[in-house]
């Protein structure tokens, strides 16, 4: 049995100055809650899934982040959320996309994985499934925030550049059995066209988990990550080229950013517990909580995420 760990991120991009402290605090709170749930479950099967949900639900309920309560608005002033989840032990996955006014898209993605025969449900179909299985907290009052309204108005007026704003939240969890779960959730891109779907709910692009390869999550401008099938590419590159996971993550970020100038970031855990975090963006909030180690977190990637003695940034 291996020590459990919970690795979370709050999005790669540009975080407004008034939200930076809260972004780090929120990531640390999510990792802490996720680890507490992991410890509570012990060696139970799929403890990693429960702990990932616990961590991401903290982020979805925190208005600091672009997911759940705090999600950004699309071009019509509406809220459409995406989420995707995958576990390593059998590569089961579930995802939802373009779901209107949902505060807990992560829970609905899990329901698709565990309670349907499908891998991805979208729009009204996803909403209907949620109602049929009794999952999901819906309503504009559950997702609207003054932050989202102000940024929508500023972007529509041309006062705020919508590109490369921090987006997506997520968690990768390794439980005591060594099983992995990757889970991402997002409100998407500010002023996106209604119906736009990014990388977050697309398997291999925004999330991936496999017993042999490990698990990864992407964040940033989805279109740039999708074109590289980012998460699968990262894990496959590390496995095929015998390149360290951290090196592979940074190289891929550099390549994607070099091609597109888009904000991009990844977190990953290898099958043996090696960690990677890399980004090409102004900020990327993150936190790591592991059994027997001090809580760490920051607003940019540490020099070596595998060094438990490295300073908190």
UniProtKB/TrEMBL annotation:
UniProt GO cellular component terms: cytoplasm
Gene3D superfamilies in the record: (Glycosyl)asparaginase (3.60.20.30)
Enzyme Commission (EC) number: 3.4.19.5
InterPro entries: Ntn_hydrolases_N, Peptidase_T2
Binding site for substrate: 196-199, 219-222
Site (Cleavage): 167-168
Protein name as annotated: Isoaspartyl peptidase
Organism from which the protein derives: Enhygromyxa salina
Organism taxonomic ancestry: Bacteria, Pseudomonadati, Myxococcota, Polyangia, Nannocystales
Gene: iaaA
């Amino acid at each position: 049995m291996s020590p459990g760990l919970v690795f979370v991120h709050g999005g790669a991009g540009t975080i407004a100055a008034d939200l930076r402290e809260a972004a780090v605090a929120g990531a640390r709170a999510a990792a802490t809650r996720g680890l507490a749930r992991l410890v509570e479950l012990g060696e139970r099967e799929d403890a990693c899934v429960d702990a990932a949900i616990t961590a991401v639900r903290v982020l979805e309920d925190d208005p600091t982040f672009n997911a759940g309560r705090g999600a950004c608005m699309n071009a019509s002033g509406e809220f459409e959320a995406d989420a995707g989840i995958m576990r390593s032990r059998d590569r089961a996955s579930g995802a939802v996309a373009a779901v209107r006014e949902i505060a807990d898209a992560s829970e609905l993605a899990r329901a698709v994985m565990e309670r349907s025969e499908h891998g991805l449900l979208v729009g009204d179909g996803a909403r209907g499934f949620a109602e049929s299985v009794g999952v999901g907290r819906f309503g504009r009052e559950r997702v609207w925030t003054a932050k989202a309204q102000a940024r929508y108005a500023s972007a529509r007026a041309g006062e705020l550049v919508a590109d490369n704003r921090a987006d997506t939240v997520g968690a990768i969890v390794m439980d005591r059995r060594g099983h992995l779960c990757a889970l991402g959730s997002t409100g998407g891109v500010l002023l996106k066209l209604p119906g736009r779907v990014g990388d977050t709910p697309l398997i291999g692009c925004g999330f991936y988990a496999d017993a042999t390869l490990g698990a990864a999550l992407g964040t940033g401008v989805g279109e740039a990550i999708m074109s590289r099938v980012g998460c699968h590419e990262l894990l496959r590159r590390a496995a095929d080229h015998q390149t360290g996971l951290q090196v592979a993550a940074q190289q891929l970020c550099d390549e994607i950013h070099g091609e597109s100038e888009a904000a991009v970031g990844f977190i990953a855990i290898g099958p043996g517990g090696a960690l990677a975090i890399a980004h090409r963006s102004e900020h990327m909030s993150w936190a790591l909580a592991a059994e027997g180690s001090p809580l760490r977190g920051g607003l940019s990637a540490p020099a070596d995420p595998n060094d438990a003695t490295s300073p908190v940034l």
